[in-house]
Design goal:
Layout: H1 2-25, H2 30-45, E1 94-96, H3 102-106, E2 108-109, E3 112-114, E4 117-119, E5 125-126, H4 129-132, E6 137-141, H5 142-147, H6 151-161, E7 163-164, E8 186-187, E9 191-195, H7 198-207, H8 211-214, E10 224-226, H9 229-245, H10 253-266, E11 272-274, H11 277-293, H12 301-315, H13 317-328, E12 338-339, E13 342-351, E14 354-367, E15 372-375, H14 376-379, H15 385-402, E16 411-416, H16 429-441, E17 445-446, E18 449-451, E19 454-455, E20 461-462, H17 467-481, E21 488-492, H18 503-510, E22 515-519, H19 522-530, H20 548-573
Parallel strand pairs: 1-6, 6-9, 13-18, 15-16, 18-21, 21-22
Antiparallel strand pairs: 2-5, 3-4, 7-8, 10-11, 12-17, 13-14, 14-16, 19-20
Helix pairs in contact: 1-2, 10-12, 11-12, 13-17, 16-20
Length: 574
């Protein structure tokens, strides 16, 4: 007993000399001072651990203490867990978490299995991205955060409370988790940057009431940039950097020019460039493959074009099947001759990562009646609201232009022939109007010219999307049937700046084998499609003889008179 008392007195003297200065130095840090005092008490209560060199043995199991009853190392309280170490960092931390599961974001407590149970201690605490980014920035993908259970609400709490709680994710779902440590909340000062697409942003803003309060700054990244001289130089520098990163051959001037040209095609604008740089990097790697295959010193325009052509070929099977059906006559398309009330419209199909254009036969039949314009697609529930709106506009134009002094006594049916999957968009409304005017006037339309463009009630042709794909789609159909030199496409004049056509189409236009026409109004377009003057309205509201508008107006007046006589006779009979 005296020996134990002596040991305790000597131990307290020695330990106090060691811990005293430390506790004094940390007096302004109460929690650290408390930890040191607790460690001092633990040392005094376990002096036997420091007497010998051999680890104490548990008398019950006959094995070292570190291997039984929790497997705890008796010296474990003295071990330090360096949770986050920024001692060698020269800048504030910027953390990008690519896999934001709960533990990776908020930290976790690891466990080890021993004697049928799970054990953990303070050395098994692992930091999360929020801890690592403390004092700096954390970059997360919004979609990844939302799909991982529990991460989004916990992230909002951490931002709102400015602290991280290391919790077990199982508990919030009512699952029984092995008992683990519960560290106290850790204060944080971190800027969180969420990246995602505009649709996801709108959904969060609409359905999460906390979103606006927590994420107050929004930055939009445009997918296109102006095609200025400086941006062209920067683009060339970017390509050079890609070549260095990918260990690829460098571009010669022609190769850079071809990439720039196709970049403008991606955004369908001659005055802009695409800023989808990941896609540009893919072109660099694919063009480099073809340059290596030729043992070329540099990547030139032909290698870039080869990469573009090969990618198009790999993804273009649906387009090839449709063109094959047109060639065989399964899908009925005329690319020559003239027909009344029939014209080739153009539509764009988007299937995953590929868009392509194809012609569709649009027909119009007019007859006596007061039914107006009947949209067969709408009646069969195969058209969307935008297409329906475009068809309704046609009635407004016809009434405004031709029925100022007589009622519009006309019924007209419009149809996308051999269309079974539905129609949406108004880009064929000008085509439908040309077909109606042809049917009323009995003036035939050229089948070798396809048409795209929407129209308003004043007869002005409006720009549309996918103009390059539409032109190329009709070109390939004509090419399969044989280019005659008089085939082409009529597009809205506003879309001329959007023309970034494939090289084969440009060559055909340059050589006079294919044509691209533009028009501002229906009158301009009808002259191109019929070869007959449209005719300008005179002071008395009539149009010159020998013009399309004169034919239409006269026919509508005759139809109104016939319909009036029909109703008069019917009334007499009653």
């Amino acid at each position: 007993e005296k020996l134990q008392k002596m040991d305790k007195e000597i131990g307290e003297y020695v330990v106090s000399r060691l811990f005293g200065p430390l506790v004094k130095d940390c007096s302004n840090l109460p929690k650290v001072a408390q930890y040191l005092n607790d460690l001092k008490t633990y040392t005094l209560d376990n002096l036997d651990l420091f007497k010998g060199t051999e680890e104490p043995v548990n008398p019950l199991f006959g094995v070292p203490l570190s291997q039984v009853m929790g497997g705890r190392n008796p010296f474990l309280p003295f071990e330090v867990n360096v949770f986050v170490d920024n001692s060698e960092a020269k800048t504030i931390p910027v953390i990008v978490e690519s896999n934001p599961i709960f533990g990776n974001v908020f930290g976790k407590t690891e466990r080890r299995f021993l004697f049928g149970g799970y054990l953990s201690d303070h050395t098994m605490l692992k930091p999360g991205a929020l801890n690592q980014a403390n004092g700096g920035y954390l970059l997360l993908n919004a979609r990844d955060v939302l799909v991982n259970p529990g991460v989004w609400p916990a992230l909002k709490r951490a931002i709102r409370n400015r602290e991280v709680r290391m919790e077990d994710p199982f508990e919030q779902f009512g699952l029984i988790a092995p008992q683990a440590l519960r560290p106290e909340p850790m204060p944080i000062n971190v800027k969180i940057i969420l990246t995602g697409d505009p649709t996801l942003y709108q959904l969060l803003a609409a359905y999460d009431e906390d979103f606006w309060e927590i994420f107050k700054v929004k930055a939009d990244f445009d997918f296109e940039i102006e095609r200025t001289d400086q941006n062209l130089l920067d683009y060339a520098a970017f390509l050079a950097g890609c070549c260095e990163d990918c260990e690829a051959k460098h571009f010669d001037p022609s190769g850079v020019a071809k990439v720039v040209e196709y970049s403008s095609r991606l955004v369908a604008d001659q005055e802009k460039l695409s800023s989808r740089f990941a896609q540009i990097r893919d072109w660099v790697e694919e063009a480099n493959y073809w340059a290596k295959k030729e043992n070329a010193e540099y990547i030139s325009a032909r290698h870039v074009q080869k990469a573009i052509n090969e990618r198009f070929f790999r993804h273009n099977l649906p387009d090839e099947r449709i063109r094959d059906m047109i060639r065989r006559g399964t899908i009925m398309i005329d690319v020559g001759g003239e027909v009344v009330g029939q014209l080739n419209g153009l539509s764009v199909y988007t299937l995953g990562d590929i868009s392509f254009g194809r012609p569709s036969r649009i027909t119009a039949k007019t007859f006596l009646g007061r039914g107006g314009v009947i949209n067969i697609e709408r009646e069969s529930q195969l058209s969307g609201p935008i297409h329906n709106k475009g068809v309704m506009i046609l009635s407004g134009f016809l009434g405004w232009k031709y029925a100022q002094d007589t009622p519009l006594s006309l019924s007209a049916s419009l149809c996308f022939e051999q269309s079974y999957e539905g129609v949406e968009g108004d880009s064929a409304s000008s085509t439908e109007l040309y077909a109606i005017l042809s049917s009323v006037s009995n003036v035939p339309l050229k089948q070798n010219i396809a048409v795209t463009g929407s129209v308003n009630q004043k007869g002005e042709i409006q720009p549309i999307g996918g103009v390059n794909q539409k032109i190329e789609g009709f070109f390939r159909v004509c090419q399969a049937a044989g280019l005659t030199g008089d085939q082409g496409v009529l597009v809205p004049e506003q879309n001329v700046r959007n023309l970034m056509l494939r090289e084969e189409v440009v060559d055909a236009v340059r050589n006079g084998k294919f044509h691209v026409y533009s028009a501002k109004t229906i009158d301009e377009g009808i002259e191109i499609l019929t070869g007959v003057p449209a005719g300008e309205r005179q002071a008395d509201g009539s149009y010159p003889e020998g013009t399309v508008n004169h034919q239409v107006r006269q026919q509508l007046k005759e139809m109104a008179e016939r319909l009036k006589g029909f109703y008069a006779e019917e009334k007499k009979e009653k």
